[in-house]
Specification:
The complex is a heterodimer.
Chain A: H1 3-16, H2 20-29, H3 31-36, H4 38-59, H5 61-64
Chain B: H1 3-46, H2 52-67, H3 73-89, H4 95-109, H5 127-151, H6 156-169, H7 173-188, H8 194-210
Helix pairs in contact in B: 1-2, 1-3, 2-4, 3-4, 5-7, 6-7, 6-8, 7-8
The chains are: A mainly alpha, B mainly alpha.
């Protein structure tokens, strides 16, 4: 298996374990797969978006309330 | 809805989507890898290698996906093509190979049929016509085998050695026919061919001593 395939599978596995940070890092290593697969690109982007939402809620929950 | 509520809602929706999409994508990637594995088995089969155990394991591993309809039509077509290639190399005189050929037929009945090489032919009108069709098939299979060797950038003598080994191990007449053709070409271009002719004759004798499936 080439590295990019390996990283894609590891990223998907990380998502299944709900480890978003690891999944996001691994998606960045699987750049060739991401470039040729729109589905994987959407998964990678949503992973980053979800991390951003969680960061927003964690960092300033009181700010988010307003 | 407050901004916080919106963010929590967004978080829940994205989590739910990711969970489902990741599972689906993982299944697709795993199926693609399984099909690549079958492709490797088909290529080894064309080289005359013994693939029965690996093919049996592949069937066992993928049985559930077929039965539960988890394979897409694209996957089924790819599987059908590889199984078609493998079936041409199976020796039906061998009970284990015959069982695998039956399993290939079962997969074909469930949709894993080859979609390429669609050739429409009239039914043979005479034994001579049938003979011509059989020769065409032999020629086409030989051409596919030569293309495989060319992809591997093999030298002609290495091809010949591989063909003779395959002819020894398998009943498919194509290997013997192609080997004989190369030997004749070497003869007319001035190469020493005695050792190859000797091997060819030994294989021919062994075949005649068992069965004639040509």
């Amino acid at each position: 298996m080439v590295d990019t395939d390996k990283y894609t599978l590891m990223a998907l596995d990380a998502l299944a374990r709900k480890d978003l940070r690891e999944a996001s890092d691994l998606f960045k290593l699987a750049e060739k797969d991401i470039a040729r697969s729109p589905e994987l690109r959407i998964l990678a982007e949503i992973t980053d978006l979800l991390l951003a939402v969680k960061a927003e809620l964690t960092a300033a929950p009181e700010k988010a309330a307003h | 809805m407050t901004r916080q509520e919106t963010l929590y809602k967004l978080e829940a929706v994205l989590e739910s989507f990711l969970e489902r999409a990741a599972t689906l994508e993982m299944t697709q990637v795993a199926q693609s890898r399984n099909i690549q594995l079958l492709g490797d088995i088909a290529r080894d089969s064309l080289r005359g290698r013994h693939i029965n155990n690996r093919l049996g394991d592949w069937f066992a591993h993928n049985q559930e996906s077929l039965e539960q309809g988890r394979l897409t039509s694209r996957h089924l077509s790819a599987i059908g093509n590889f199984l078609g290639d493998i079936k041409t190399g199976l020796d039906n005189a061998d009970p284990e190979s015959a069982r695998l050929a039956e399993e290939i037929d079962r997969w074909a009945a469930k949709g894993a049929k080859p979609v390429r090489k669609i050739v429409l032919r009239r039914a043979p009108e005479s034994p001579e016509a049938d003979l011509g069709v059989r020769f065409d098939k032999l020629f086409e299979d030989g051409k596919a085998q030569m293309e495989y060797y060319r992809e591997k950038k093999m030298h002609l003598l290495t091809m010949l050695d591989d063909l003779l080994k395959s002819a020894e191990a398998k009943s498919d007449l194509m290997y013997l026919h192609l080997a004989a053709s190369i030997i004749y070409f070497l003869k007319v271009t001035g190469y020493k061919i005695d050792p190859y002719v000797k091997r060819l004759k030994t294989i021919e004798k062994a075949r005649l001593g068992t069965k004639d499936d040509g």
